[in-house]
Amino acid sequence: MNKTYRALTHPLASLVALAGCVLLVPLVMRLALGWSEPLGYLSDLGSGGLLIALLHRRPGWLVLHVLLAWSALTLANIELISAVGRMPNPSDLHYLLDPQFVENSTSGGFAHPWLAALQLTALVLWLAVQKTSPPPLAPRLPRHAWALPTLLLLAHGAVQSWRPSEADQWNLFNLPHQLVTAGIAAGQERAQLWLDGGEDVLTPPMEGLTRLDLDGQRLLAAPGQARNVLIIALEGIPGAYISANRQALKSSYQEDLMPRLSAWAERGMNTPDYVLHSHQTIRGLYAMLCGDYDKLDDGTPKGVEMLNQTQRNRACLPAQLRQHGFSTHFLQGAGLRFMAKDRIMPHIGFDTTLGMEWFTKPAYLDFPWGKDDRTFFEGALNYVGQLQQTDKPWMLTLLTVGTHQPYSAPEDYLLRYDTAKQAAVGYLDDALDSFLAGLERQGILENTLVVITSDESHGLDDIRLASSWGFNLTLAPEPLPRIKPGVHGHVDLTASVLDYFGFAVPTSLSGRSLFRDYATGREIMSFTNGKLRYHDGKGTFTECDFLQRCRYYASEGFIADQATYAGQYSGRRARLIKARAVALDQTLLPTPLNQRYQFGSSERIPLPAQVSNDWTDNLIGAQYLEMPKGSQTRVSLNIRAVDANHAAYISLKAKEFERDVPMDLPTDVAVTSDQPLVMDISFDNPQARKAFSFHLLGHGEGAIEISDFSVVTELPEQTDQPEYLDDMQDDSEAQSS
Questions:
Q1: How far is CA 523 from each of CA 54, 176, 491, 533, rounded to the nearest angstrom?
Q2: Running DSSP on this structure, what letter comes out for residue 558?
Q3: How far apart are CA 279 and CA 285, in angstroms?
Q4: Do 119 and 71 touch, CB atoms closer than 8 A?
Q5: How high is the mean pLDDT in each 10-residue block of the chain (737 residues)?
Q6: CA atoms within 13 A on the CB side of 342
Q7: The CATH number of the domain covering residues in 217-585
Q8: Is the CB of residue 480 less than 8 Å from the CB of residue 268?
Q9: Which of 398, 395, 212 is nearest to 319 (CA)?
Q10: Do residues 635 and 682 lie in contact, with contact meaning Cβ atoms separated by under 8 Å?
Q11: Nearest-CA neighbor of 4 among 132, 118, 108?
Q12: Which uninterrupted H or E stretch holds 42?
């Protein structure tokens, strides 16, 4: 006891406790999480050291508030990276001051609870020292104590400028340092614009990114012999998992997590340099099925925007094949309402759109997102058997969910692999192999064009561009080259399938055909893990980060294990790269203003007994919307219980970047068939909102009907239009019929 007291009252105790909070804890966390880039440690040492110099011997109340803010930022950073793979940005920070947000965000526990416990322990120790050894008793630091941490931060910036790292931001920065650096960069950008005479309107040439290019040499002398089309989208699988791709690109990644799919790849055509343009399933599906880039930012997915159009959707692959006599089908192992796939898929031409409710056989695993992969593919094989009984050629698109976080696999798989993620991938590999073998036994592969790909990539640690690295394995009745050279991506898939059959390809589509060889390179872009990437088709690959700083490399293709660093730039050249992405974002709509969406319908939606997850239990498809600065959003609700004998209990939540937004929204409101929930809600958007989602949650017995869930975003002076709800309701009824 005496030793503890002497330690707490030691003249250096206050300094040591402060260093523990702002220096030791971040370093331990970085080491434990495996974020082991040297620049990251340099960022922690520099930022923590500077904070020590600023806070040492300051009043306890001031230091306490700073330490609480520092701890909150550190924990928020770790939690957001664990959840969605990105660091917080300044628009997130005001939520930390909102009690409701903090309560809701932590109600389900922390992703790394022991890290929160470590922070709390350090704070408690510091408070104990304050009680026994007040700051004035501590010795003064040397007059220039701030100089060393400042030099460390300057060295960090110099290394990044001289030889920027390709690692993720959280490997290179702690959050306060990253925010300050981003703020300085934004200020420099504004100053440069002012010196240049104001914002210039950049209009980069776009034809290389948006044109339909069918000028290559055909791989097949005649239209393909296949009768049917089967597209299989595997949740989150990167191209590195296919051995043929690793060998072709001489990848340093050597784990063989999908040996069975790699064996099938030896029998088909592989495209090693295959680019995924963005994250999120709905964006990947749009790009592959509609021949267009989805937004290269966090704006409203184009699939949702297309609900307001009646022309561009007709150019999508299912609509085109339907015009040529195919029956078109979409089947996934999850609920359809998430990301509005229940509305988007019929709108782009699928005759039949089915989700988790189609599967009646008990699942082998309980999985929050839907059906496990073995259950899904066994059901899919039966579905294909049903299609074979019809006279029409068919197109079927399958979407798995089993390799989505949180990963799940049977116990014997978990024992065979080091992580749950690896076990889930192995489980998928076996399930897919059984499915393909079943197709072969039934003779279906003899007359079916099969394309196996992924919606997005869940990435790989320390593998360059893994978040953008996709794959395309094509099995066809005709012999095809085992390796397809050149750069391709999801934007090419629709044109490729139509070109295979010799069908006319709509000129509104973008991309090249996988069934042609091209003598020249092509322009292509992606936006994953917060980095905007562009290849000019002439040997230069460019990658731009949050600082609006672009690094360029000599690289023949897009996906490469290594590339020769050639330099970096910012300013107008960097803005030109961003301007290309902005132009691609606007291929459907010139502006996100005056957007009107109707997510309601006459469908009866069964209710769960309890709500367990804001995402998997969401009853509406209004996700990842964009609301411009200065606009106003109005939401109209009309929800009733179908069964006269049972009430439903309805709650509405709002989230931005997958974090709760405090709003005055209905919570656990009782709804009956006689007393529906009818509400009109409006809120202003003083700052731009992106990745904004509504989560309509309900529990009880029976079912509900959401006859109206309309979302309108427009400028405040446009809001005097009372007829908009009637118009939208008419559109909704027309679509549902």
A1: 49, 36, 12, 11
A2: S
A3: 11
A4: yes
A5: 52 78 88 85 90 84 86 78 62 51 48 79 84 65 82 87 72 85 74 63 88 96 96 96 96 95 98 95 95 88 90 96 98 88 94 94 89 96 96 97 87 92 96 98 97 92 88 97 97 98 96 97 92 95 86 95 88 89 85 78 86 84 86 92 89 86 88 91 88 90 91 75 42 40
A6: 24
A7: 3.40.720.10
A8: yes
A9: 395
A10: yes
A11: 132
A12: helix 38-55
Measure the CA–CA gap between 707 and 238, rounded to whole angstroms: 40
Domain residue limits, the chain? 2-193, 217-585, 595-736
Helix (H, G, I), strand (E, B) or coil at 397: strand
The residue whose two tokens read 């672009």 is 550
**CB burial readout 625-654, b (16+ within 10 A) else e:** bbbbeebbbbbbbbbbbebeeebbbbbbbb
SS3 breakdown of the chain: % helix, strand, coil, rounded to 5?
40, 20, 40
The Cα–Cα gap between 395 and 235 comes to 20
Neighbouring C-beta atoms of residue 288, cutoff 10 Å:
30
Whether the model clears a pTM of 0.90, i.e. scores above it, the answer is: no
| 194's tokens | 């002012």
Q: Which residues contact 440 (CB under 8 A, 6 or more apart)?
A: none
- List strand residue ranges (DSSP E) for 35-78, in order: none
Can you say whether the dihedral through the CA atoms of 523, 527, 529, 533 is positive or negative? positive
User: 554: which 2 tokens?
Assistant: 């000599």
Q: How far is it, in rounded angstroms, from Cα 14 to Cα 63?
A: 11
CA distances from 101 to 66, 76, 80, 104, 107 (A): 20, 12, 14, 5, 10
Closest CA to 296 of 312, 274, 282, 277: 277
- Enter the DSSP assignment of 279: S
Q: In sequence order, which residues have a C-beta less than 8 Å from that of residue 605 and are 6 or more positions away?
A: 337, 619, 698, 703, 704, 705, 706
Strands (E), 429-549: 448-454, 469-470, 473-475, 488-489, 511-512, 516-517, 524-528, 531-535, 540-544
Q: Is 1.20.1250 the CATH number for 595-736?
A: no
Q: How many CB atoms lie within 10 A of CB 218?
A: 15
C-alpha 293: how far from chain center: 15
Residue 397 carries which side chain, given as an amino acid letter? T
- Structure tokens given for 376: 């899904």
